[in-house]
Each structure stands twice: as C-alpha cells, then as structure tokens.
Amino acid sequence: MKQRLIIFSFVLSLLIMAAKFYAYYLSGSTAILTDALESIINVVAAAFAYYSVYLASLPRDLNHPYGHGKIEFFASGLEGVLILLAAAYIFLHATQHLFATPTLERLDLGMYISLGSAFLNGLMGFYLVRLGKMTHSPALVADGKHLTLDAYNGLLIVFALGLTFFTKWIWVDAVASIVFALLMCWQGIRLVRESVAALMDETNPAVFNKVIDWITQHQKPTWIDLHNLRIQQYGGDLHIDCHLTLPRYWDLGRVHDEIDDFEVTMGKVLPTEIEIFVHVDPCLDACCSHCEITDCPIRAHQFSNKIEWTAKNMAMNQKHFNEIKLV
C-alpha cells in the first residue's frame, strides 16, 4: 500500500513539475521558477522515499537484527537537505532579480497551473501525512509534509502572480520567491533535526506517553513494578525494553505465561510491528507497601498506597518504592 502510494506521488510530481517548467518557459516568472525547482525535490524525494519504504519492508537478517526501518529516517533527513539546497538557490536567484525588470508574459496561465498543482499537492500531501502517522512511517510523513509545503507555495505563487498581473509591480514576483525560500529553510531544518534525533534514538514523547497510557490502562495487580522502559523506533516498527517486577514465589512456568500475556497486551498499543524484550525482576520486601496482590503468602508488611506510574519514574532504571530514595 505504502509503495503504491509513493509511486503515485512520484508520477504526480513528475507531471506537475513538467507543467510548472512549461509555465515558466512561457511566462519568465521567477516565482514560477521557484515553484518548478521545488517540484524537482518532490520527484527526487518521492523516488528515494519509495526505495526507503521498500528497504524498510525487508525482513530482519543477521546483519540487521532490528530490521531496516531506520532507512526511513535517513530518507526524511535527505529530503530536508534537498529542501535547504533548493531554498538557497531560490534565494540567490530571487535576490538577483529583485531590482531587475524582466519581461513577464502569460501570467494568467501561470496562475492556473500553480493553483491546480497546489490543489493536487495539498490533497496528496494531506493523505500521505495521515497515512504516515497511522503507520508510523517517517518517509511518508516527510514526503507528505513536503507536498503540503509545495501546496502552500502554489497558493503564494498564485497570489504573487495575481498581484503582479493586476498592478504591474514586477518586484512582487521576486519577493514572493524570497518569502517562500525562507519557509523552505524552516521546513528543511525541521526535517533534518527530526531525522537526526530519530537516528540517535531520541525518545519520541508522543509514542512514549501513548505506551505509558496503554500500560496504565491495562495494568494488573501482579505487575508489581515496571521501570527502565525504553522505546526505539525503526521506521514504522517499535522496539520496547522494560523491567517488570513479578512475585518471587511464582514458578518459572507462571512467570513465562505472565510475560506472554504482557507482551500480547503491549503488542496492541499501536497498529504496527512491535518487538518487546522484558527483563523480569523478583519482588522485594520493600515492594509490599505498594503491592496490590491481596492473597500474597509472603507479604512482609501491609499495603500502604499505590505508586502512580509516570513517564519519569518508568524511564528510570530502578524500582519504585514509597520511600523518597529509590533503590
């Protein structure tokens, strides 16, 4: 599904790019050239996004035990770099024409083409971002955001061309290009920053909090403690590590069954492939104060109060106790 969608995005970007360069050929507008150059990035980005999604879909192997999903983060970062390079060229080209008086023709045709491409790019970008967030695909999200940015650019171009057409203010054409170049810089820097953060396994707060909410909603009394929770993203897939404290008087068979049940529960937190590694800790006497097992045969002292599991204490590599100092 994702690969077919990106192929469609690639073909659409090719057609739109050809139409924009044709409009530039007829009009000589710097703003339309800006739009056309930005479309080249759409084509290149869609091609690399297709390759990255294909590579991410390959199964794990001995050389890639966590899969190939991180290539999607690289694709997202590459798209950000391409946007920055295009923005730099557009800015230089526009500033050179800021005080010039080029001959502009057929601006009405340029407006029609820019408006049509803005509509198509906006529709495609919205769908790609939506599907990318649903499937946790950074490549789809990046490609969708880029198309959405291109749609905004198209609207800006239409406004600039309309203003130039009716007022004959030639400088508006160059100013519109400069404004959009600045917008492209912001988008490019944002994509590169997000890509680098993901490649360095920076915690995604939205995903982390969603996992914590899911755990607390399905928490069982036998899950005495959960800590050292770590979540890594490999493209659309997740890898989750945690330490789970269970009653120390349980036999190995019951511990195994409980871990299986925990993994099944955790595997439903998001509609994507999730790999879960659980390290089991035996309970300590100090756990009794917040342990909710009512028929515990080895309870050392009475239940005091339940400790709320939060993003802070679940990420720490230490058990939770009612005392101020954690052990």
Characterization of this structure:
This is Cation diffusion facilitator family transporter. It is found in: Membrane. It is a single chain. The protein is mainly α. It is built from nine helices and three strands, in the order αααααααββαβα. A three-stranded mixed β-sheet has the order 1-2-3. A hairpin with a 2-residue loop joins β1 (225-234) and β2 (237-246). The chain is elongated, with a radius of gyration of 27 Å. The two termini are 48 Å apart. Mean pLDDT is 82; it is low at 323-327.
Question: Which features does this protein show?
Answer:
327 residues, mainly alpha, Alpha-lytic protease prodomain-like, Alpha-Beta Plaits, 2 domains, 3-stranded mixed β-sheet, 9 helices, 61% helix
Rg calculated over all Cα atoms: 27 Å
Silhouette: elongated
Please identify, by name, the CATH architecture of the largest domain. Answer: Up-down Bundle
Distance between the termini: 48 Å
- What profile does the largest beta sheet have? 3 strands, mixed
Please provide the ordered H/E string of secondary-structure elements. Answer: HHHHHHHEEHEH
* Integer average pLDDT: 82
Main location: membrane
Pfam family, one: ZT_dimer
Family: Belongs to the cation diffusion facilitator (CDF) transporter (TC 2.A.4) family.
Domain Cation efflux protein transmembrane: 6-200
Write the layout of secondary structure elements.
Layout: H1 2-27, H2 30-56, H3 71-96, H4 107-135, H5 138-167, H6 171-199, H7 205-217, E1 225-234, E2 237-246, H8 252-266, E3 274-282, H9 311-315
Parallel strand pairs: 2-3
Antiparallel strand pairs: 1-2
